[in-house]
Specification:
Layout (H helix, E strand, L loop, with lengths): L37 H11 L1 H7 L3 E6 L7 H16 L3 E6 L2 H10 L6 E2 L2 E2 H4 L10 H8 L5 E3 L1 E3 L5 E3 L2 H11 L4 E6 L17 E3 H10 L6 H13 L4 E6 L5 H7 L5 E5 L1
Parallel strand pairs: 1-2, 1-8, 2-5, 8-10, 9-11
Antiparallel strand pairs: 3-4, 6-7, 10-11
Helix pairs in contact: 7-9
This protein binds adenosine-5'-diphosphate and arginine (ARG).
The site of arginine has 12 residues, from helix 10 and strand 11.
Length: 268
């Protein structure tokens, strides 16, 4: 079981201690004392991640990256950095990327109207019925320690191309790969119990709970297809599905390697 939380703040401000200061040597694993130096704080956090590294080592984690988090170059770099770090400590990340803002940008330049239906882009909605996912080609890539990056376009036997919703691809792929986790990076804090209040984050919930929130109308718009993907992947054996704030740097590491996480974790 993961160790009890260290009660560290979510947002860390590292301050250089004012000299003169005295150094006290103490056991870095003891959490009964507040960290004394910035270095101490760092090793405390590193040490908090150990149970999660042990738990998730060798496990496949499918991450969908899209929306606002894709717009900023520094956030792109932070996502890539996190994926490499996770891979280096033994997890098996698979990245599925969406193209939302890019598609909207080009449609606008070409004067084509953007159209959404039930929170899904119309080109996605037409292809929601996913009959078959064949992840065979991914196994050798993942087993060699590489991180596959997958675009959410597909073709049928006749060569007809489809733009499939990237959340859908990530969810179905997670199920087909027998993944431990599905993580959808988005541009809200997670599932909110009041969608107009960013501080109303629901940190953990189960399938029954999200279904109730959809029925009551608390979850709406683009969040509905997102939670549906999560529920579908959980029903097919994925252990947890998280909806995480991609605008926060290193939110992937926060979600996977800390007790607190960085969004909403849905379990079966
Ligand atoms: P993405 O572009 O990352 O795929 P979407 O914009 O399609 O994400 O879906 C997320 C949106 O869902 C949020 O921006 C928010 O407006 C809407 N939403 C509706 N209900 C909720 C809720 N209960 N909690 C959070 N977001 C919600
Ligand atoms: N790091 C732990 C895990 O991945 C806990 C994550 C908790 N996340 C949350 N959003 N409540 O299992």
């Amino acid at each position: 079981n993961p160790s009890p939380p260290l009660n560290l703040p979510n947002k860390l401000t590292l301050r250089r201690p004012k000299p003169p200061f005295s150094l006290s040597i103490r056991n870095s694993l003891s959490d009964s004392q507040a960290p004394t130096t910035p270095g101490q704080l760092r090793v405390d956090i590193l040490s908090e991640s150990l149970p999660f590294i042990q738990k998730f080592r060798g496990k496949t984690i499918v991450v969908k990256y899209g929306g606002a988090a894709m717009k900023s170059e520094s956030l792109q770099a932070s996502v890539v950095n996190d994926l490499v770090l996770l891979s280096c400590v033994g997890l098996r990340p698979v990245l599925v990327h969406g193209g939302g803002p890019e598609i909207n940008h080009w449609l606008k330049r070409l004067n084509i109207e953007v159209s959404f239906h039930d929170g899904l882009r119309v080109t996605d909605a037409a292809t929601m019925e996913i009959a078959r996912v064949d992840p065979t080609v991914l196994w050798s890539i993942v087993n060699d320690g590489h991180i596959p990056v997958i675009a959410s376009v597909a073709a049928d036997e006749t060569g007809q191309q489809y733009n499939i919703n990237a959340d859908t691809v990530a969810g179905e792929l997670a199920a087909a790969l027998g993944a431990e986790k599905l993580i959808l990076l988005t541009d809200v804090a997670g599932i909110l119990s009041d969608r107009n209040d960013a501080s109303s984050l629901v940190k953990e919930i189960d399938i029954k709970g999200v279904k109730k929130m959809v029925e009551e109308g608390t979850i709406g718009g683009g969040m509905i297809p997102k939670v549906n993907c999560c529920v579908r992947s959980l029903a097919q054996g994925v252990r947890t599905a998280s909806i995480v704030d991609g605008r926060v740097p290193h939110s992937l590491l926060l979600e996977i390697l800390t007790d607190e996480g960085a969004g909403t974790m849905i379990s079966g």
